[in-house]
Amino acid sequence: MKKIYIVDDDRNIVESMTIALESVGHKIAAQYDEENVVNNILNFAPDLIILDVMFPENEGAGFEMARAIKEDARTSKIPILMLSAVNAKGSYAGTFSNKDRDDSWLPVQDFVEKPINPKDLIAKVRRLTE
């Protein structure tokens, strides 16, 4: 069993990911905003973070949270799976993907578009938490 922390403002997405991941024995905690994310992660001590890109108040909040998580020595080793509908919705002029990952701009271990098939989500989580 792995502990997974989900940060996403879409409660339906959180619920569907929670159902899928709990079905294979993972323990899930979630938050729906960007408030105190590093402290909340520290309190839960997850093996993996699933992080959305866009939040209503700040379209780049996911990037900012990913950088804050990686800059804090206490959370920097926790892998991040970034999940977003940005490319599917065309919110940005360009697109971004796994090729855009780097230690400063997009410090995540993997990037996928929503919606993600539950089997694919479980496989990604398994790979990132091995």
Rounded to the nearest angstrom, the distance between the terminal CA atoms is 11 Å
What's the rounded overall pLDDT mean? 86
| Major sheet | 5 strands, parallel
Please give the number of β-strands: 5
Number of continuous helical runs? 5
Task: Return the domain count.
Answer: 1
Kindly report the CATH topology. Rossmann fold
As residue ranges, the low-confidence spans are 88-94, 97-101
Helix coverage percent: 25-40%
| CATH architecture label | 3-Layer(aba) Sandwich
Overall structural class, as computed from helix and strand content, comes to: alpha/beta
Biggest sheet strand line-up: 2-1-3-4-5
Q: Which CATH class?
A: Alpha Beta
Shape: globular
Order of SSEs: EHEHEHEHEH
Task: Give a verbal description of the structure.
With 130 residues, the chain is of the alpha/beta class. It has one domain: Rossmann fold. It is 36% helix and 18% strand. The protein is built from five helices and five strands, in the order E-H-E-H-E-H-E-H-E-H. The protein has helices at residues 11-22, 37-44, 61-71, 86-89, 118-129, and strands spanning 3-7, 27-31, 48-52, 80-84, 110-113. It has a five-stranded parallel β-sheet with strand order 2-1-3-4-5, sandwiched between helices. Helix 3 links the parallel strand 3 and strand 4 (80-84). The longest helix is centred in the first third of the chain and has 12 residues, at 11-22. The radius of gyration is 13 Å and the shape is globular.
Q: What is the structure about, briefly put?
A:
The protein is of the alpha/beta class and 130 residues long. It has helices at 11-22, 37-44, 61-71, 86-89, 118-129; strands at residues 3-7, 27-31, 48-52, 80-84, 110-113. The chain has a single domain (3-129), classed as 3-Layer(aba) Sandwich (Rossmann fold).
